[in-house]
């Protein structure tokens, strides 16, 4: 057999030939002698022609050989880059390598990497995304859009994983600041290399929840966080750069290697602006709102931003804000940004600036908008000139620093003193340390005062910290040495190692007792029960062997909610260190101590006892481990150190770790009945009250499933809700159960739901759990007073006029209202720092405060003046006055008290309580009810509508006066009259005055105001709408049977009296919000209503008429509906409210300033606002409201006449 094999002819490259048995070790430029030492058998191959030699696979003449360098061969013209890209070399031929150039990575601004098999410094294309102002976003690809959501959102993250790309995520959390139409960036979080770096407005940076001084280095140097101008900057080795100015402006810069791999609000970075609005689900959406809402992160229950029209500027606003003193500076061709306008789109920045100013109206918005544009310009290396002075945006720099329009963006610090020398980023405006100073945790200090660098973290001199998570190694940075010394240590007994407010520390290990909602109780030992008693109870007190510990007592008073068989905590008393501290619903910004009101914060016992407000709660804190918090509405908690374990009693139990034996009565008996246990702790055995339902008589929720969903209470346990971070730390089931019960009984009432959610939020924050924002403007919103804003996690001891004597840094953050930047908390108001008050003997005084001190021989009146100076003036009480405490205030008080009924009407009780009631019957205003020895009297008023069916005015009092005629004993008489010994009826300045000896005086102006003046001998003996005259305004709203009224309408109707005019008997009814009264006009017209009256008489269709003593007008059904709608809008003004007409009452200086001490103007101001709301800006209504306060002042001896000029009330007799 024969086999034939056909092989194609071998084609050899140029300058070579085929050999059937050629050398296996051909000569090459790198190894020219290899053939001489080759031990391999010959091979069939192509061999170089004579005179040629191999060079990288080609046959070349010997003189064209390349180079051998670092063990490798390179052909002529080849370039090489060393492993670190520190050298670039080329081969010129002739067999020798030549050094071509030397570049550092910083100079090249590139990346040392192997691409397509070649190592080189590859130029990186970067892109930047930004969010500024309200916020305005600009994606990596350059698309601008606005989105005002107030949740946490993904700004940018890696969405297309790749082996050569490092994953990261940047999220932002936005918040409202005053305006409800826009929001600002509050917090930035960066997750990279397993670390979470957080930068929050008004705080320091933190890493994994632990606060850090900047600069800080993490991940073996792959993460660096440092100061840069006015911002904090995070940089990584992968080219990610995130900056935040601690206020509103955040930027994210990424290298081109991430192109097409990102997602979030910053877009996909693919160079195409038409496909930016891709939602988190991958779908294209049509609007910025839909796009923004889709990138909500980690809190599904946070409400989505609705599609609402943007705030619009008026023509006047736009003209003002477009001027060069405002946003016009951005587009001014000769202005501070002139060199940037050709490279940066200044027109869009200008429009954003105008938008922000129109939305907020604050100068801060202007400075933020201009500052963001300035930083963008400088980030591109474009110079700007000083813009702050011309726009009123001056920057206040700290000690040892000054403002520079172009300062280094890499400032020298204690841990990096030579940083500016190797800074490769453009300059930035901001505060720079003076020569000879460096940054130390944000402060400029001499290098000799620097601290220590320990494990990549900077520590300030003297700073102590726990090095480990278990608090076993305590370290301190030794001042002056730069060394950190650590020693073995541990927390003390009854202390726990925890991270609180970003710092690891030993905190007292305490137990907490809570009363919240209807109320639901949880004892120190964790036993839960519901008790609806409506008395005053001992919540907790020291007992059983606690004689060696400080004694204390905490009592709560529960108020029944009529119709619901439940109660709410409405007053808390703490007795400790010899003081009684009373917290009540009307004590916002102040507290009653030993019967006297005091501004917060208040302290005694050398700081061992402090009362302060933090967010929504007022706190009473002691130095022995007792702290009480009360939100002044429904929720009270007591935290108590474990030193008291087993030594307490009361509704909070015995604190012995055993829930089963908590039901112990005051005599030490363990009972099984909840009702018997709870009722036994009634604090005042003489108090007339009920202990609520028990057993089967208590109401039950018939449809709990209705309120357990995520639209109601289910938000508590929602896995992706705002409380998700708390679910692993705190069992939500009991809170969910309590919430469902309360909301169910309240028939879905939104306020009740918010109270239940707040109780759970408070418990979570007590465990130092960081919560996502769960409130917004339309859901459980908090109405903050002027110059303040809401924060879900605010620091307790910032922005106060006076610092707290006790350290609160170990306490968790709190939610609530906090003063805006530049303002400080003074009592219940946020004021400019320059308007802070004074501290005298531990008592804080606002600038408007005056108070009395009792000396052995005289009394001193003290006032707080500018500069914190307290001025004392010796004074004596006037004749007819006595020195004492009345309504929580010490001073010279008249030996009588007054009640005022005025306006629509409003009732100002003897003790200072305010009641709004618009019933149109006859009512008992005041009478002697509880004493048979004092001269008896009874005063009633008959009220009727007057022009508005939803309010009423006094038609007839004890004296009814059409002109100068009154009735005594039912018969009309001419005045003056003296019906019996000691009783006189007079006309004085147009007012009927009834004088009954020295004990009672009644004044009625015949139109809208009735004043009662009674002597102190009647204290505690009266009843009616004017209250009981016992010095306590909290219990003035009592029904005839002595029980508290559920609301003002309930109170007023209960005091309806028999009698009244024959006409009003048939038409009189209790106040009703849905019906319009049909009362015919039967009275002569006055100069105010003549036309309206004639209209009523001549047209039958106007028979639906409302009449009162001196006014008559007509009301159609349409007007009736309008009045009902307006009535629902007329409520008491919020704290800090300003009214252009009623402000005259509270103005200081003002016409009534001298009267404020004797007659508190706040309730009169509230009534004035209410009346002007109901009647519009009617001048007569205003004059009557202000005139009522003037009359009350007159009864105290203050004759004020200038108020008529100030209010333009000269022509009205009120």
Question: What does this molecule look like?
Answer:
Pfam families: C8, TIL, TILa, VWD. Keywords: Disulfide bond, Glycoprotein, Repeat. This is VWFD domain-containing protein. Residues 127-303, 511-690, 897-1063 form the VWFD domain. InterPro entries: Mucin_vWF_Thrombospondin_sf, Ser_inhib-like_sf, TIL_dom, TILa_dom, VWF/SSPO/ZAN-like_Cys-rich_dom, VWF_dom, VWF_type-D. The protein is an alpha+beta fold and 1214 residues long. The protein folds into nine domains: 16-65, Laminin (Ribbon); 72-122, no CATH class; 124-294, no CATH class; 315-440, Laminin; 509-695, no CATH class; 700-791, no CATH class; 843-876, no CATH class; 895-1067, no CATH class; and more. Helix content is 13%, strand content 33%. It contains 16 helices and 79 strands. The strands form 22 sheets. It has a ten-stranded antiparallel beta sheet with strand order 14-13-12-25-24-23-22-21-32-31, covered by helices on one side. Strands 40-39-38-51-50-49-48-47 form an eight-stranded antiparallel beta sheet, with no helix packed on it. Helix 4 (346-360) packs antiparallel against helix 5. The longest helix has 17 residues, at 363-379.
User: Regions with pLDDT < 50 over 5+ consecutive residues?
Assistant: 1-5, 97-109, 855-859, 946-966, 1060-1129
Structural class determined from secondary elements = alpha+beta
Please give the largest β-sheet: 10 strands, antiparallel
Structural domain count: 9
What is the approximate shape?
elongated
Task: Note the beta-strand portion.
Answer: 25-35%
Q: What is the first-to-last residue Cα distance? A: 140 Å
